[in-house]
Amino acid sequence: MMLSLRRARAWAWAAVLALMVAFVPAAAAQQVTVRGNAAYQLTYGYDEGKLVESALDLKLRVEQRLGFDGKLHIGLDGLIPLNGGEAQFDLGEAYLDWYLDTTDWRIGRQVINWGTADGFNPTNVINPRETLSPAALADGALEGEPVLAIQGSYYLPLGGSLTGVAVAEFVPAAGARDMLAAIAARLSAWQGGLPVDVDRPAPVPSDGSQIEWAVRGDWLVGGHNVYVSYFRGWDDYPAAWVEFVGSVPSKVAAQYRRVQKFGLATAGTIRDAGVWTEFSYTVPDKLAVLDGPGALSSNDGYLEAVIGADYTFRNGVMVSGQVIYNGGGSLLMPYKEPGAAVKPQTYLLGIARYSPEAGHNLEGIVLANATDGGIIAAGRYTYDITQAAKLTVGLSRAIAGAGSEFHAVKSSANLVTAGVEVSF
């Protein structure tokens, strides 16, 4: 099986990390922990009347305590499609932790989770994440892709901490080319079938400019945790525009560009309710071509914000609600219509969780676009068969008129899911 260059580099890093630990004299093993799970996932699209997914998902995590105050972590991920397609085996997180008196260090492939909101985190920008999809909403998680980075945290004497992160290589988000191809297909249909090509963006240079960095400080203010962050790096999705021959669209072009992101997040309680806020302002590097009539991306800065709260009733029902504002446009699509202005969107997210008895868990999620009235709803039931095995069934549905952004994903949102997972 051929490995991509990025995947080969990841495996090379894991080998280097293992060799480094093997040759450190103080790194004699004190404790090794092996964890993992095997899960079968079945997804059926009931509108399209076809099987969307039938796959076996494998995860293995190995942690070794070291002779000095630290640990080694290596994760392996596998996906074996049972309804066609090639099996994939990837290196997940693979890093070395080192704990000192006032600082903690993590070196290697890692997922860095920043932010305080439930699921949608505007300040969590270091790891590339796919845009929201109905399947991801039904799963209840938006996972980040590990990046090769160094992370260091310094704990202040009077409380709080300062964290710095340097990312050695740029990892783009998946799915951009498919989105641009869909835009090109619409343009082609609009002009009677004349082809519209899609350019692949040039890779980010490997001359040092690919390095991304971020800093975050956190303090306790009035009983609330306050986090201030800054990121300087590359946008996970390339900026894009339409090129014309005369007045006829001929090509969709794209280019990666650097951005700055300023973040502020808080988390705390008001009486018995948990409350949080999260704000991010993005300033992209300007590209002159995006001031033209075919721009699919914008040179303008934009605000993202989340305000939410949760509360657990005496009977065990937990409910949470969030207002999500995306000044950059849609949560589903990072691109706008050619030459049009960006249309900020406001969403309402509601989540409810309840365990009627031990081993039985119910969860419901509703995402509504307050701007156009579209709704995506998902429900899930989980039964703990044993302490190490669980069964999950779920249902999701989109309710959206022709004017809603969710209308385009109705068929892919109307899903029935079932799965079984065994952990060890």
Characterise this structure.
With 424 residues, this protein is mainly β. It has a single domain (111-423), classed as Beta Barrel (Porin). It is 10% helix and 51% strand. It contains four helices and 21 strands. The protein has an 18-stranded antiparallel barrel. A hairpin with a 4-residue loop joins β1 (31-45) and β2 (50-65). The two termini are 28 Å apart. Mean pLDDT is 91; it is low at 1-5 and 25-29.
Can I get a quick summary?
With 424 residues, the protein is mainly β. It is built from 4 helices and 21 strands. The chain has one domain (111-423): Beta Barrel (Porin), CATH 2.40.160.
Spans where pLDDT lies below 50 across 5 or more residues: 1-5, 25-29
Terminal CA distance: 28 Å
Q: Please name the CATH topology.
A: Porin
Helix content: 10-25%
Count structural domains.
1
Number of helices: 4
Structural class: mainly beta
What number is the mean pLDDT? 91
What form results from the Cα inertia axes? globular
The profile of the biggest β sheet is: 18 strands, antiparallel, barrel
**Radius of gyration, Cα only, in angstroms?**
23 Å
User: In sequence order, what are the helices and strands, one letter per element?
Assistant: HEEEEEHEEHEEEEEEEEEEEEEHE
Proportion of residues in β-strands: over 45%
Reading off the top of the CATH hierarchy, the class is best stated as Mainly Beta
Q: Total strand count, please?
A: 21
CATH architecture: Beta Barrel
